[in-house]
Design brief:
Number of helices of chain B: 10
Structural class of chain B: mainly alpha
Oligomer: heterodimer
Number of strands of chain B: 0
CATH superfamily of the largest domain in chain B: Winged helix-like DNA-binding domain superfamily/Winged helix DNA-binding domain
Order of helices and strands of chain B: HHHHHHHHHH
Structural class of chain A: mainly alpha
Number of strands of chain A: 0
Shape of chain A: elongated
Order of helices and strands of chain A: HHHH
Largest interface: A-B, 32 and 54 residues
Strand content of chain B: under 5%
Number of domains of chain B: 2
Helix content of chain A: 55-70%
Distance between the termini of chain B: 58 Å
Radius of gyration of chain B: 18 Å
CATH topology of the largest domain in chain B: Arc Repressor Mutant, subunit A
Largest sheet of chain B: none
Helix content of chain B: over 70%
Distance between the termini of chain A: 90 Å
Chain lengths: 88, 180
């Protein structure tokens, strides 16, 4: 005999009031379903939000990069670079 | 599946099985909560349902298993009591007087001890197969593991059971005693 099958001997009997329990569970489910939106948030809305976040992050990263790269690329004169004179 | 109306049909089709399984594991009082929560969780997660699946049953059992896992302490207490429950309260078919079944009944206290002492994920798998009567493939699907992992875990459970029952398959011992 397979040891796994021996465990079926431990299985308790199904509840005598299974129909009533099922009906109560169904009623609870129905009540909960009326509170839940009929359909979940459409996928395109989720994607649109993700796209906005990505776009915003990209713009911020590009601005930060430009702020560092552009002054570094400007020619420096005897009084320093454009940036150092601006700071002064 | 994605329509609430269709979901009611899924409840009607599978609620009895889920309720029976939950009741076996936690008793009828908690089974009502677990059944309602299982189908509500399934409804909320219906967008993640893989429509290429042939059957919703393993998916629902997987959700039910997670709901049952929230009542682990209550389950352990119940499992420890199983060894002393009168046989007539078990679902055993008493018309089945085969040596195997009679032997299994004799070892109920030890089997209950094995069941309550094993790691939760092994117990989950074992009971999906022994009590919910899922196939290996269905149990693998329900738990999100491979069929080879199912076989491996079941072999570990067999070895552990043999050890607790005295290092031998009691059914074989019974046969040896009976047939010399």
């Amino acid at each position: 005999m397979d040891e796994i099958r021996m465990f079926t001997a431990l299985r308790p009997a199904p509840p005598g009031s299974a129909d009533q329990i099922r009906q109560r569970a169904r009623a609870r489910l129905d009540a909960a379903l009326t509170e839940v939106p009929a359909s979940p948030r459409p996928a395109y809305r989720v994607w649109r939000r993700h796209r906005l976040v990505l776009l915003g992050s990209g713009l911020a990263a590009a601005a930060a990069g430009a702020a560092i790269a552009v002054p570094a690329a400007l020619p420096a004169g005897p009084q320093g670079s454009f940036v150092t004179s601006a700071w002064a | 599946m994605r329509d609430p109306g269709c979901f009611a049909a899924i409840f009607d089709r599978h609620a009895d099985a889920i309720l029976r399984y939950a009741s076996s594991r936690l008793g009828p009082e908690v089974a009502e909560d677990v059944t309602a929560e299982t189908f509500l969780a399934a409804f909320r997660r219906r967008c993640h349902y893989d429509t290429s699946r042939r059957d919703t049953r393993p998916w629902l059992y997987g959700i039910a298993a997670r709901q049952i896992g929230k009542h682990r302490r209550a389950e352990i207490r119940r499992l420890r009591m199983l060894g002393s429950i009168p046989p007539e309260l078990l679902t055993e078919d008493f018309s089945d007087r085969s040596v195997d079944q009679v032997t299994a009944r004799q070892f109920r206290p030890q089997l209950a001890e094995v069941l309550s002492g094993m790691p939760p994920r092994d117990r989950e798998l074992l009971l999906l197969i022994a009590w919910a009567e899922l196939s290996y493939a269905e149990a693998a699907d329900a738990l999100g593991i491979t069929v080879s992992a199912v076989r491996s875990r079941l072999n570990r459970i067999r070895a552990r059971t043999r050890k607790v029952l005295g290092g031998a398959n009691p059914a074989n011992t019974e046969r040896e005693n009976r047939y010399g």
